[in-house]
Amino acid sequence: MWFIDGFVRDFAALYNKSAFTGALIWWGIVLSLTAAVTMYDSNSGRRKLWGFLISTIGAVGILMYVEYINMKVHQDVLKGVITNFVVMTLGGLGAGLLAVAITEDVSKSEDIKFRDGLFNFYDCAFVFVGLSSLSIFSFCLVSEFLGRTVATEHELSGMLVTSLGALIGWVITACRHKIMRYEALAGILLFLFFVFILIIYAQALSGVWELASIWVFTLIGLIGAGLAGALRLFAAYSRAKIIHRII
Predict the structure, then answer these.
(1) Which of 29, 50, 52, 94 is the most exposed place for a label (fewest CB within 10 A)?
(2) How does pLDDT run across 113-166, given as a tens digit for each residue?
(3) Cα torsion 28, 31, 37, 38: sign
(4) How many CA atoms lie within 13 A of 194 on its CB side?
C-alpha cells in the first residue's frame, strides 16, 4: 500500500505542476490505443487504417484541449511546445500508418469488413455528437429562459451547426448503399467532415463546460449509455435473427 500511496502522491504532484500535464496523459492514452489496435493483427493493412483514424482524432482532441487550457493559463511558449510535440508524434504516426495501409495489398473480404466497420463507426459517432449537441443546446435555451446564461450566442450557434452537420453525416452514412461506386471517396470525405464538426463541437462545448460542467457531463453520459444500450439490443436481435434462420 505504501507504494501505491507514494505513486498517487507523486502523480498528483506532477499533475498539479503544470496545467498541460493532462494533455500529455491523453497523448499517452491515444498512443497506447493506436499501438494496441495496430499491433493486434500486424499483418492486416486495415488495422493500420484504424490506427490512423484513432491517432488523427486523438491529436485533434488533444490540440483542442491544449487550446482550452491555454485560454486559462496563457502560457503560449509551453502551449507551442506541446502542440508541436503532438503534431510531430501523433500526426507523423498517423501519416505513416496511412501510407503503409495504402501501399499494402488487402483481400476483398478484409476491405469489405473494414468499410462496414468504418461506416458503423460513422453511424454511431454522428448520432452521439448530434444528440449530445442538440441536448446541450436545449439545456442552454432552458437555462436562458430560467434566467441563467450558460452559453453565448456563438456557442449556441456552434451547437446548432454541430447538430445539423451530424444529421447530414448520418443521412449520408445511412444512404451508403446508394453510392456504392463512390464508397471509398465517401468514407474519406466523411472522416474529414467528422473531424470538422468535432472541432466546432469541442469549441462550443468548452464554453458551456465552464458554467455547467455537471449538467453537461450528465447529459453526455446519459446519451452515451443509451446509445451503448441500443447497440447491445441491436446486436442481440441480430444474433437471434441469425440463429432463427439457422434453425
Answers:
(1) 29
(2) 777 777 888 888 888 888 888 888 888 888 888 887 777 888 888 888 888 988
(3) negative
(4) 27
Alpha carbon 49 to its chain centroid, in Å, reads 15
Predicted TM-score (pTM) of the model is: 0.70
> Tens digit of pLDDT for each residue in 5-51?
554 555 555 556 666 777 788 888 888 888 887 776 655 656 777 78
96: amino acid identity, one letter: G
Distances (CA, A) of 241 to 19, 122, 209, 245: 51, 24, 43, 6
Domain boundaries, the chain: 1-106, 107-247
Place of cell 495489398: 105
Residues 6+ apart with CB under 8 A from 127: 166, 170, 227
What is the distance between the alpha carbons of residues 139 and 101, in angstroms, rounded to a whole number?
A: 43
